[in-house]
Amino acid sequence: VVTFARDAEGRLDGADRSTAVMVALITATGSVLSGEPDAVARVEAIVDPWEAVDGDPLALVRVGFFINTLSWTGHSTEALALAERLVGLGRNLSAPSMLPFPLAQRAEVQLLMGDWDGGYVSGSEALTLADETGQSGTASFVRCQLARLAAGRGHDRECRDLTQAVLESVSHNGAGSLTMYAHATLGLLHLGMGRLDAALDELGRADRFARSAGLGSHSAVPYLADLVEAAVRSGRNEVAARALARFDGLDMAGVL
Fold first, then answer.
1. Model pTM?
2. Phi and psi of 38, rounded to 5°?
3. What pLDDT does 206 receive?
4. pLDDT tens digits, residue range 178-196?
């Protein structure tokens, strides 16, 4: 993604403003995910991501992805505002099919900001609408968010059911990256319930998936801190040391 977008950056002479901003959004997101050293600077250089829309409905989806990018780099307030803008647009247009994705993004940001009740409300509405409109990938993403909330609250059965539904769905909706979310969430659940061996197993799966996929951001799927804790509590100091070393290499966003 980064290579493609940066190649496009070199071909922007004469391009309109919306195209230039869209390329900047894609490049910034790819840079964050791959852990590029200039990632945060690229995110902060985008003053108004809405300039990328310019009447193009598909551009709204791409702008929606930037909500994640903002939250991953510690710009939660801006991320929430952008999510609210997209949700408001969908409601004003009476377009329920537009709502699941930004509602799902809003739920993730709210959960990261500690607004668990708000995240649950946003996620529940997103899941209902995604299921009703056949948006399987978005539905699975929302289930990941609701499962993480259930894990945080110690709701064992609910968390397991939601993550199982996600793992079963990725074979037909193509959202394979959600496998990493699911295992990270199960790891959090087991860690909170004191099942340290199971936690290490699930968090280790998430870590292997992240490394094989080239994920360079520890905040995109927040499992590394849980892996460190599980390893320390289990007396697996070598595992904890390796995970901590990865923080040194990934903390380009300054977000822990």
1. 0.84
2. -100, 15
3. 92
4. 899 999 999 999 999 999 9
Q: Would you tell me the crossing angle of helices 76-92 and 57-72 to the nearest 10 degrees?
A: 160
Q: What is the DSSP letter of 47?
A: S
Which tokens belong to 70?
């903002």
Q: Which two tokens stand for residue 85?
A: 């803008």
Nearest Cα residue to 244 out of 232, 228, 231, 255: 228
3-class state of residue 113 by DSSP: coil
Count Cα atoms within 13 angstroms, Cβ side, for 61: 6
What does the chain come to in residues? 256
- Tokens 């003053």 correspond to 47
183, 207 contact by CB (below 8 A): no
How does DSSP classify residue 115? -
Q: Which amino acid is at 208?
A: R
CB of 85 closer than 8 Å to CB of 50: yes
End-to-end alpha carbon distance in the chain = 25
Instruction: Find, among 149, 143, 156, 213, the residue nearest to 182 by Cα.
Output: 143
User: Tokens standing for 130?
Assistant: 């995604």
- Residues with Cβ within 8 Å of 116's Cβ and at least 6 positions away in sequence, in order, are 110, 149, 152, 153
Structure tokens at 207: 């870590």
Q: For residue 31, which amino acid is it?
A: S
DSSP state of 38: T
Residue ranges of alpha helices (H) inside 153-236 are 156-173, 178-192, 196-213, 224-233
Q: Which residue, chain included where needed, has tokens 């968390």?
A: 159
